[in-house]
From TrEMBL:
The protein, known as: Enterobactin ABC transporter permease
Location of the protein in the cell: Cell membrane
Keyword flag Glycoprotein: no
GO biological process: siderophore-iron import into cell
PANTHER family named among the record's database cross-references: FERRIC ENTEROBACTIN TRANSPORT SYSTEM PERMEASE PROTEIN, PETROBACTIN IMPORT SYSTEM PERMEASE PROTEIN YCLO
Length: 320
């Protein structure tokens, strides 16, 4: 049966089965120790990767829907760079111990509060009064992202070299030391957002048609776009605060999801993107651990692959 003849529902089912296979392989390959240790240890990593993969994939899909642009990701709003700036400031003020000074839970709260608070202030400033342009939002996000990056780079150049090494390790996504309590809190927050997003799936189909069509179809465009952007900010903030920034991962997954799904409907795109995000992270971590013996970080590989996908999408759009 040729792939084009497969229905979106069947493709989702096959992808879910592939995900179960990858989870089973991740949990069992090389498990030579006690299962009472292996299952909780690996189970936490699996849960973190599923959570982060789903959150990043869905947030990117939502952001591309409201901006009507398939080469943009939520990182354009500067949230990843704000996370880097927070980490850099802590190391600059208190040395390498600054990352552990507040404790993982308070640091988690600080990072989420800063990122969500920044997003809300940005949305309020740009979606109040007569200013309602999404392109202006993207432009302002880029400017703030460059500002945060410049400040982080300046502080990184004047801190102690030994502290800088510790800082560099903290700026890559890490799934090996996830706090179980923070994971549970993150799962609740992301789960609530995903439920709301799924209930909005038909409205998202309308938003994808553009502002004029959305208004003509009776949907309050301004309010819905603001709501979607807030949900995007929550998903990105929670996943980033939990494991670290993964900039191009969403672009990579969502681009593949559009190709696999063969549909523009969010009732198909949402589960496919979520499953792809989880499967990609799990399979990538499995290969890095069992084939390359953790010779590099998963985040570096994802950034490289996502960067190639970004260049390919740009060239594809230019040819068209």
């Amino acid at each position: 049966m040729p792939p084009r003849s497969l229905s979106p529902s069947l493709r989702i089912t096959l992808l879910a089965l592939a995900g179960l296979v990858v989870v089973a392989l991740f949990m069992t390959i090389g498990a030579n120790g006690s299962w009472s240790f292996v299952l909780p240890f690996r189970g936490t990593k699996v849960a973190a990767m599923i959570l982060v993969g789903t959150a990043i994939a869905v947030s990117t899909l939502l952001f591309q829907t409201v901006t009507a642009n398939r080469i943009l990701t939520p990182s354009i709003m500067g949230l990843d760079q704000l996370y880097v700036l927070i980490q850099t400031c802590l190391v600059f003020l208190a040395g390498a111990a600054g990352l552990t000074l507040l404790g993982p839970r308070w640091l988690f709260v600080l990072e989420i509060a800063a990122m969500v608070g920044f997003s809300l202030l940005l949305f309020r400033a740009l979606f109040s009064g007569s200013v309602r342009d999404l392109h202006l939002l993207v432009l302002v996000g880029i400017v703030f992202g460059l500002l945060f990056r410049s400040l982080s780079g300046f502080l990184a150049r004047i801190i102690d070299p030994n502290d800088f090494v510790v800082l560099q390790d903290a700026l890559f996504a890490n799934f090996n030391s996830v706090d179980q309590e923070l994971l549970a809190i993150s799962a609740i927050a992301v789960g609530l957002v995903l439920v709301l997003v799924w209930r909005m799936r038909h409205v998202l189909d309308v938003l994808a048609l553009g502002r004029e069509a959305t208004i003509n179809l009776g949907v309050e465009h301004r309010r819905m776009v603001a709501l979607v952007l807030v949900l995007v900010a929550i998903l990105v903030s929670v996943s980033t605060a939990l494991v670290g920034p993964v900039t191009f991962f969403g672009l990579l997954v969502v681009s593949i999801a559009y190709q696999i799904t063969g549909s523009e409907k969010h009732r198909h795109l949402l589960p496919v993107a979520s499953l792809l995000g989880a499967v990609t992270l799990l399979a990538g971590q499995l290969v890095l651990e069992r084939v390359f013996a953790l010779g590099t970080a998963l985040g570096i590989v994802i950034e490289f692959a996502g960067g190639l996908m970004f260049i390919w999408l740009l060239l594809k759009g230019k040819v068209r």
